[in-house]
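Is it possible to get an amino acid sequence alongside its tokenized fold?
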Amino acid sequence: QVETACNGREAVQMVAEHPEGYYDLVFMDIQMPVMDGYEATRHIRRMDRSDAHTIPILAVSANTLASDVKNAIDAGMNDHIPKPVDYESVEKALRQYLG
């Protein structure tokens, strides 16, 4: 099952409003209105809940320089998937982070 957020603030709100363990993985776009993916990830990681540090959050971005990947990791994301997203990248990420 897939759920979508229109911006980073909405993504944070969705995680906050659902019970711990509800989300198995988050694909986080970097460039979103209202709140970007870096800030949204930092908010999620600071939440006072057991899954805040364990839920895999994967950056999705057309910015693919080494510094962009580092920024994603520094913000608390687990990995970086380049755009345009292809099926193999998504399948690999799902296998890696969800078993």
The longest strand covers residues 57-61. Strands lie at 26-29, 57-61, 79-82.
